[in-house]
Amino acid sequence: MRAHVFITNKDTFPVVRDNSFWGVGIAGIPNTLKKIIKENLENGRKPYLGMIADILGTRIGDIIFLYERQVGFHGIYKIASESFFDPTSIGCVGETWPIRVKIECLNYFQQPVPEDYLFSTKEYESKFWGWFYRKIQGARGINTINPEAAEALIELLVKINGNAINKPNWIKPYPSNNFTQIKLPLDRNGKVYLEVILRAWLIANIDKLEQKGLRNIFGPAEDIEWFANNVPYHVTKKNIDILVYHKNMKYTGFPLRYQYSVIELKRDKTKPNDVSQVINYSKWVAGRLANSEIETIQPILIAYDFDDKTITKARLSDFSKRNILLYKYKVEDNDIKFEEVEYC
What we know:
Layout: E1 3-8, H1 12-19, E2 21-24, H2 33-42, H3 48-56, E3 63-68, E4 72-79, E5 84-85, E6 99-105, H4 122-127, H5 129-137, E7 142-145, H6 147-161, E8 180-181, E9 187-188, E10 191-192, H7 195-205, H8 212-218, E11 224-232, E12 239-248, E13 256-269, H9 272-289, E14 297-305, H10 308-316, E15 325-332, E16 335-340
Parallel strand pairs: 1-3, 13-14, 14-15
Antiparallel strand pairs: 1-7, 2-6, 3-4, 4-6, 5-6, 5-8, 9-10, 11-12, 12-13, 15-16
């Protein structure tokens, strides 16, 4: 199950609920997609492309919970469209929320889940690690939550409400047709303009069958159970670039999560410390998420180029019997190609 928490407040919650959409942005954001991209390319510290990366990680059919600040989690909704750009004002949601996606109410529960319920037992605490770290690190419009957290939120909604009620008749379809498809700028002499663009492109394409290069890196698309970008794992601002869960039931007859891919991205040439970084992330995933089963963790480092010291450090790593996979990327024909770096 892939699921996300979308942030709202007392003013925006009824607007997005009643108009079947959600959006993200900040005050002063440009009112066209072209201007957003131009500003962010000129100033890499702008957050716009990071917001786009988050929303490109959604898929039609993903489960959604609407978090109303100071109130709790409303549900259950699902993604009903691909992401798009639309600055049309709807109620109190104006041009500051132009990066949007349509949503659909699946089950309407009158009572939300208060936030403190997420940490009311040790079992719930262990499932909501992502939400805890994100809250500590600071606000973020979209929070992709792991399958265990999504199941626990549904469980809490049922425990609090008993049953869902009929979908309210005041909920209407998204009222605007003024939207633009989101496309990423890629090429800068073979490199991406910014590292966040590489992350956004990967998260948008990671489960696509036609992306043969990604299938070589991440395996069968049907085995990708869950993925997220910029995953928080520490109270400080430490984030895993991309984390992927792999699952199948081909051989056991029941769903088996058999691998966690931990991906570190570099726009330019790597340094030996980048190997240390992906290993540290992988150790945390093994201990926190994989019951210390190190052999289920696959560290992956993707960069434009690799220096000899980085390759040597990866070759000498004794993290596990799995090699640290190294892949070069290159932008070609408005696409990104990948080549494995052999070092064994």
